[in-house]
Amino acid sequence: MSHNTFGHLFRVTTFGESHGVAIGCVVDGCPPLLPLTADDIQRDLDRRRPGQSRFTTQRQEPDAVKILSGVMAHPESGTQVTTGTPIGLLIENTDQRSKDYSDIKDKFRPGHADFTYDAKYGVRDYRGGGRSSARETAMRVAAGAIARKVLSGVTVRGALVQMGPHKIDRDKWDWDEVAKNPFFCPDKDKAAFFENYLDGIRKSGSSVGAVIEVVAEGVPAGWGAPIYAKLDADLAAAMMSINAVKGVEIGDGFAAAELSGEGNADEMRRGNQGVTFLSNHAGGILGGISTGQPVVVRFAVKPTSSILSPRRTVDRRGEETEILTKGRHDPCVGIRAVPVGEAMMACVLADHFLRHRAQVGS
Question: Which pTM value belongs to this model?
C-alpha cells in the first residue's frame, strides 16, 4: 500500500492499523530548535482520545505518545528541542477487541471501505478496518501538534457547527464554550440540545453526521501559490483525506453560488496596517494565496457506518446476506473529527509556510 505520506516540505507519514500492535508516524522537515516534548503532543491527543463521554466510542485507549527520534536536550538551556531530523512518534494500542468482528469477517459492511479494499488488494483487515479505521487519525493529531510549533503567531481552532440537520446559532458563537462541552460546540444552547438529540440516536443503535468548521487566524497574506499549489486546494485535499469526510468548502463554499457578484466580492479599503477587507466570503484565500484574513474551512462528516440495524450486503463469495455490526462505535464520528481537522489545517499551513519561506525568504 502506497500513498501514506502527505506534505512537501513538512511531510507526515503514518503507519499501523486499528487492531495492530501500535500506530505511529514520522514527521520530516520540521525546523530545528523548536521546543517539543511528549506533553506538548499529548495535550492535543487527549482532545481526540476515545471513551471520554457517552457520545463517543467506549474503546479505552490512553493514546500515550512516545517520541522516538528527532529531539534532544539543548546543550545550553537543557530544554528539549527539535534537531531538524525526522521525528518518530509511536502510540501503542492497548484495548483492541478483534473478536467483535469475527462474525462479519467475510461480509462487506455497507458504508465502509471493506469492499473497495478487497477489490484493490485482494485482502482486507476486517478487525476494525485496519488502515481505513479512524484510529489512524490519532497520528495526524500528533503531527498537527508539531505543526503548531512551526506556526508561530498562527492560531488554529475548530468547532462542530452542525449535527444532523441541526445547525448552531452563529450569533451565539463563543470559542470558550468549545472546551466546555463534549461536542466541541461554540453554541452553549445548541450543545445542550445535542445531548438529548444524540442520546436518542445512540440508544436506537443508529448514527448521525456532522459539519466541522476550522478557522486559522494570524496567517499572513502570501502563503500558497497559483495553479497547482493552491492553499485552498491543499486544504481541501487534506480535509477530504480524513475518514468519513464527504464534502469540503472554503469560506462561503457552496453558499457562494447563491450570491451575486456584488454580494460575494470582499471589498477592500486602506487601513492602518495596510489593506483591510470588509468581508470574508473567500475564506481568507484568493487565487490559491492567503489574503491575511482568517482561513475558514468546513467539512461534512457522514454518519458512522457501523450501526446496530441489520443492513443488506454481500459476502466475499458474492452471495447476498444481511449484516449487523457489533462493537464500540461513535454515534457521531464528527465529534472527534474536530481536533483532526485542526491538525490537518495546521500541517497544511506549516507546509505552505516553509514553502513560502523557501521561495521568497521571509
Answer: 0.93
